[in-house]
């Protein structure tokens, strides 16, 4: 029996690992698949809700690292995960995405001589000021295998001399979760609860440090929301980082009494998906939402200077909007008044990526 550990830590990791855990069930006599949760995200709404919605089993180990500076968070994951690796002796560690838990777990495993496979490897924004970009570069540099979601990742890894035979274009496990959860959206009451109807509102999320950690930038974004609210209702589920900064910078006044802006706490996966599916369009600075809207053929304005997911712009319904007031307002006006470009869904974003990953792990990596 071989052991594979998949590491999750923050909200966008859960939907990437849930389908892999399900796909490993087929190999339960050959592979013991363990989920390790670092505890980077720990609030019920940022973590447990996703385990329920995605029907994930409880993690085999919970490391309880919590919040902290980047160094603290990374270091705490490394110390705790090293103990798990020494106890469980995995044959392979799977890390996903680009959060601090990803690089911390990869570095720990590699130093113990355990091979690492990076699910969603190879993505590059080119912006080294983003903590996620450092996590991506560093994780890929020490991973033995990369499972990639789009052609740009193959180009990036090849340019960085990653061995070509260890790159596998498998598709997107996040879209596996989307396929899994879409039928359940029918039971979500989130639209009724908030008095919303199909295509009548815009769904917005912002949490990137570059958008919410500077008072002027956050103030500008709230003013843009105020502008848009004159034409459409806005549903705004708030990430804890964003909420804390709105309070600390005393910016609540810009939007507090606006009846067309509906503030919500962070939502579970099914409710969020239901809102995305029925929105007129989406405004975000998230990575995963760019992909989910592409898969749903929903129009998305990504309020960032770069994206590590260019396929969503090249063939999907995503647009990259430089996050300055006049650009965002112009993009909103185009969205409200002009015909919208149709997008296509990348071929292997078909809901079967985790099955492909598990087959490669079992047959080629572990050679069972
Ligand atoms: C992290 C990821 C980011 C991802 C995001 C999704 C890194 C570097 N960043 O950013 O790539 O897009 O998750 O959500 O790994 N907090 C809570 N409850 C929680 C978690 C966090 O209140 O369950 C608060 C804490 O005050 C914390 C702050 O949010 O200091 C930020 O959390 P952190 O995990 O450091 O980064 P995120 O901004 O969530």
Provide tags for this entry.
alpha/beta, seven-stranded parallel beta sheet, about 375 residues, Rossmann fold, six-stranded parallel beta sheet, binds uridine-diphosphate-N-acetylglucosamine, 2 domains
How would you sum up this structure in a few lines?
This protein has helices at residues 11-24, 48-53, 70-88, 100-111, 131-142, 151-159, 173-185, 190-193, 209-212, 215-228, 240-248, 269-278, 288-296, 311-314, 325-337, 353-365; strands at residues 2-8, 31-37, 61-62, 92-96, 116-119, 145-148, 167-169, 201-205, 233-237, 261-264, 281-284, 300-302, 318-320. It has 368 residues and is of the alpha/beta class.
For this structure, the CATH topology of the largest domain is: Rossmann fold
Small-molecule binders: uridine-diphosphate-N-acetylglucosamine
Task: Specify the CATH architecture of the largest domain.
Answer: 3-Layer(aba) Sandwich
- Output the number of helix runs: 16
What is the average of the pLDDT values? Answer: 98
Note the main sheet.
7 strands, parallel
Globally, the shape reads globular
What does this structure look like?
The chain is α/β, with parallel strands linked by helices. The protein is 45% helix and 15% strand. It contains 16 helices and 13 strands. The protein has helices at 11-24, 48-53, 70-88, 100-111, 131-142, 151-159, 173-185, 190-193, 209-212, 215-228, 240-248, 269-278, 288-296, 311-314, 325-337, 353-365; strands at residues 2-8, 31-37, 61-62, 92-96, 116-119, 145-148, 167-169, 201-205, 233-237, 261-264, 281-284, 300-302, 318-320. Helix 2 links the parallel strand 2 and strand 3. The longest helix has 19 residues, at 70-88. The chain is globular and about 60 Å long. Uridine-diphosphate-N-acetylglucosamine binds next to helix 1, helix 5 and helix 11.
């Amino acid at each position: 029996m071989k052991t594979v550990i998949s590491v999750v830590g923050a909200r966008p990791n859960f939907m990437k690992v849930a389908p892999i855990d399900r796909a490993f069930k087929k190999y339960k006599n050959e592979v013991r698949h363990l989920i390790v949760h670092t505890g980077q995200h720990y609030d019920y709404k940022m973590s447990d809700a996703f385990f329920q919605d995605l029907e994930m089993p409880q993690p085999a180990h919970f490391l309880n690292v919590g919040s902290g500076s980047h160094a603290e968070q990374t270091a705490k994951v490394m110390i705790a995960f090293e103990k798990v690796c020494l106890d469980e002796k995995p044959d392979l560690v799977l890390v996903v995405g680009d959060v601090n838990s990803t690089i911390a777990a990869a570095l720990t495993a590699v130093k113990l001589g355990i091979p690492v496979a990076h699910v969603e490897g190879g993505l590059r924004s080119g912006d080294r000021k983003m903590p996620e970009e450092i996590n991506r570069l560093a994780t890929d540099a020490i991973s033995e295998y990369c499972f990639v979601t789009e052609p740009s990742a193959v180009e990036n890894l090849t340019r960085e001399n990653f061995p070509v035979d260890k790159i596998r274009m498998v598709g997107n496990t996040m879209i596996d979760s989307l396929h899994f959860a879409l039928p359940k959206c029918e039971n979500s009451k989130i639209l009724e609860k908030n008095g919303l109807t199909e295509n009548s509102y815009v769904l917005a999320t912002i949490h990137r440090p570059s958008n919410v950690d500077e008072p002027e930038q956050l103030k500008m974004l709230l003013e843009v929301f105020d502008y848009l609210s004159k034409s459409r209702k806005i549903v705004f589920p708030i990430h804890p980082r964003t909420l804390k900064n709105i309070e600390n910078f005393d910016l609540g006044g810009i939007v507090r009494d606006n009846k067309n802006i509906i503030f919500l706490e962070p939502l579970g996966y099914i409710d969020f998906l239901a809102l995305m599916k029925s929105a007129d369009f989406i405004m975000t600075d998230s990575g995963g939402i760019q992909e989910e809207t592409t898969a749903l053929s929903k129009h998305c304005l990504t309020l960032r200077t770069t994206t590590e997911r260019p396929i969503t712009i090249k063939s999907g319904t995503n647009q990259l909007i430089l996050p300055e007031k006049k650009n965002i307002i112009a993009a909103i006006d185009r969205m409200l008044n002009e015909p919208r470009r149709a997008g296509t869904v990348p071929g292997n974003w078909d809901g079967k990526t985790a099955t492909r990953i598990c087959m490669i792990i079992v047959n080629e990596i572990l050679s069972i």
